[in-house]
Amino acid sequence: MGISNFVIIDERKEKRKIKCVMIDETMMIKYATDNMLNNKIRLLYSNRNSMFLYKDELDMLSSMNKNINIVYTVTGSDLEWKGRFGRIDEDMIRIL
Asked: Could you give phi then psi for residue 22, rounded to 5 degrees?
């Protein structure tokens, strides 16, 4: 768990700083959706298995905001998972 600072510049070109505890990945995305910001946000979310915390909430928020794209990736073996596998690395960031 860590604390990160995010700066969001909305359509009025106003900077808004958000301090986010990274255990809750939904905070920045919820803020952008609640405030109808036009910022494009891509969350690369990696986990050892398909049991992603807050996946239902993240999927709901991304369905409400076309500017949010969430990419889930699993690093371990998970026979149930039908999505992307692998660690987040420079190549994945470049491709996505």
From this structure: -70, -5
Please name each of the domains of the chain with its CATH number: 3-95 (3.40.50.80)
Q: What is the pLDDT along the chain (96 residues), one digit of tens a residue?
A: 444 455 555 555 555 554 444 445 677 788 888 888 888 888 888 899 999 988 999 999 999 999 888 999 999 988 889 999 999 888 888 887
**CA angle centred on 22, ends 14 and 72, rounded to 5°:** 100
Total-model pTM:
0.71
Contacts of 48 (CB under 8 A, 6+ apart): 74, 75, 76
